[in-house]
Amino acid sequence: MKIEQQLHIALSHLEKGDIESALEICQQILHQYPNCAIAYRILGHIREAQEQLTEAALAYTKAIELQPDDAAAYAHLAQLYQNSGWIDDAVLLYKTAIQLKENWTEIYYHLGESLYKQESFEEAISSYQQAISQNPQYVEAYLGLALTYNIQAQSDRAILILKQAINIAPNYTKFYNTLGCLLIENNQYSEAIEVFQQAINQKPDWAILHNNMGQAWLAQEKKERAISAYLHALELQPNLTVTLLNLGKLYQHHNQHKIAIDYFQKAIQQAPKNILAYSDCGYSFQKQGQFDRAIAYYQKAISLDPKFVEAYCQRLESMSISKTETDEWRLAQIACVRFLRKLQKFDTFSQSKQSSERLLLYDDWVQFHVHLGNALLKYSQPDQAARHYHQALQIQPQRVEIYIKLVSCLIQQKQWNSAIATCHFAKAIRKKNYPKNQGLTSEIDLLLGYIAEKQQHWETAINYYTKALQQSPSHNTVNLPKITESDLEFQPQTVIQFTKDYLTKDYREGFYTEICLSETTCFKPSSDSSQDCGGLECQRCLKQISKQLELINLGNGIYTNSLKKPVPVPEFKTFVAGIPNGRAWIVPQENDWMICKAIAILTPENQLLADISREYPGELPGCQGRSSENHQVFKQEKLNQEPPGRYQGPERLSPALRNPVSSCRLRIPSLRRSTGLLPVLCNPQK
Q1: Please, which residues have CB within 8 angstroms of residue 523's CB and are 6 or more apart in sequence?
Q2: What torsion do the CA atoms of 264, 265, 268, 270 make, to the nearest 10 degrees?
Q3: Within a 10 A sphere around the Cβ of 584, how many other Cβ atoms?
Q4: Per-residue pLDDT tens digits for 232-278
Q5: DSSP tag of 36
């Protein structure tokens, strides 16, 4: 029998799954013809089927050694390396195969896959495009091309490619599934639902389609429809881990933690190394007050990948932190490291309920939440601070001083009824557990008096203030929250959007001179001004910005704009203005994270000049949802005429105002009312 016939028979057995027969024939060929390169290539296929990857690589390498121009051997070895995670070697082998056989469409596709994994996205796009140019019906290449454009933050282009691909291959269901996922990412939920339905009509038994349909319904906040879609997915594929996790997160989000835990535990059964499943399950146990079980799941999550936690702890432990540290953010980090270190060593089952190790672990857990809540409250994020105070109180519900902090958050959010209820609850706990500590009661009465004053319940306010002073005479009435007539004189009343309009109206004194410092390029603002501004994390504005850039993914979540396209900058006017008797209200920098986060420029008539006032976190370029009436200056009880911190010059102020859009320098020494001009060199946002 000729060698060609033997090789054909070996391949036939391999295709039928008869590996032993294929191996026997291949070994006979190599015994007779030890330099047969094709036989070594087939042997490589056989070893791969046997999952003997090292032997397969050796066989492919031998085939290349015997026949250096065998493109197929290079391609199969490249595929083996790619599947094993040796991406750089795979890329080199694929490129060699293409040099040997330039018209091999499939290799261009696989090279694109390897380049994508290598995060060489521009080259990946070129490879996919080459595959499509050689064979416009090669459907997998369209998918790869669309996903590469999407990761390059060019979602519109990716969506367009998939729609074109559907016209070419309307029965290829993967196109619809990928298109639906990209539409969800692009907030086009209704269209995504239509696309998923088309896919389900084609392939109703594909569970992942029903899972993704659930994601689209959930994005539209249609909980029941989302649950129905998820459950349908599980009927088709009961071990679908992603759907189990999605259901767990949905119920967790709606505080149905018992049901959530059930789904998380089922996910863990299917994927015992899924860190997210352990972490989320631990959180739901924590919310149920089952702290020991929560700790056990957190420990498991850390043990699956301890490198991150270890690196975090080592970095903070290497920093020099004073024993008298007062920075709340630093104190939160210190408490977090202490908690993580104790958590890793803690034996949940061998410790009694009142063991010192357990109490110390829980105390560090509480301290982390309290200090982080303090930092967030100081940073004017009372809603986030309240969440951390709630978590601390869930662990140690007898801590009256934490209730007092929580009340401060509720007051800032003007949740008066919740604040009053929390105060009375805290008083009851104080009376039961700390009967001799009148200081805590006086603090609570002080807060109740303040709430009553804000609600204009004057007699109630006076009663509470009187009680506070009787219980703790050290409280000075000067420190009680109040607004005097002199304070109201300095309170801003209205907003003027543009400084030029203020100075030119009625021929006011002062000056306004435009200067040219920089060029601007076209920048399209967000078209939707009906929604509130989401700040620096506003997804609507971020997507609008990404559409106007030509982003290049450098890997690891880092992007740069292509040098071929200039960065668009909103059009603005640069000017110098002098405002007689104007004032500046400034929040001073306190530490390396609590920067100078707000500046308000006020006219003598107590009007806020919006185009030269700043606050952080502010809005992104082009945002149309931000209202100057929400500036922090309007949320103040009173504006101090004396500065809380001395302003020592432009260099002290400018770091707080550095952003990609604007900077501002004020030439004034303090916050008090100026007797002369308030000159402003400004590069405004609008």
Answers
A1: 548, 568, 569, 570, 571, 621, 622
A2: -100
A3: 23
A4: 999 999 999 999 999 999 999 999 999 999 999 999 999 999 999 99
A5: -
